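Sorry to interrupt, but I need a hand with the structure work. Can you supply me with one protein entry, sequence and fold together? No commentary is needed, just the two lines. Leave the record below and I will have a look.
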Amino acid sequence: MGARRRDALRVLLRLRGRDDLGRDGPDPEALSGAGDRGPVSDETLLTSLTDGVARITLNRPEVRNALSRTMVAELEAALASFEADPAARVVVLAGAGDRAFCAGADLKGAGDRGTTLQARESFGGLARILEAMARTRTPVIAQVHGFALAGGCGLAVGCDIVIASEDATFGLPEITLGLLPLIVMAPVLRAAGTKRGLPFVLSAENISAREALDIGLVSRVVPRAELESATTALARRMAGWSPTAVAIAKEAASTIQDMEYAKALRYLRELTTLVFLSDDAREGIAAFFAKRPPEWKGR
């Protein structure tokens, strides 16, 4: 296990209240947020951090980036690592190769169901990743090309922003195997609503990026040749804003979905007060009048 992967897993275990990767503490430089990280390659993921933009690339192109247990664990750890790094302002999630963003779970060995506990743990990884992406203060952008199927579709839709290429295909084929995309239904139905999302779940039909845009699963569709540049441009733009304002905006957008309208307005009024009184708001206003770039404090 590489040093960076060990450090990331250590962060993850600490978040779960554990630390069983050995007695040595993590390398302070790995989690300090002091600067950029060059590309790091391991068995299933590629990660990097440049100019505030963290990139996580699913790296199993030979199987259309299918989610193995190892990949799920390492993706969970990578998200935890970037969550702990203040230098990471935005996370971009992409898939390696030309064929797919992610084709869902690796079904090799799926016929051996094992015990109830083993099954729960197997499916729990995706649920933890979706929950972590929703909970983190850092915006997560999905850069989707090719196939985004089953759990891969849920992984994409579970991101805060989804930018898809014109050739992207979204689908939930689980019901054809006697299964259901129950965990994936959380982000899909939240994004599309029941009337549009449930037919997508039950039909098992693949839909195009444009159709996914129409029902609310995708934020923007671009030509394949422009996918990475468009995603990177948006990520860099967002990375330049106050991290305090971005984090509160993400939290507010999620929270008010479950609120009555009047309660949402009262909640947003209180958040507006907090934002206005923040150090970043003070710095932003001062920088505007001084005609200089702001130096965000992150508080």
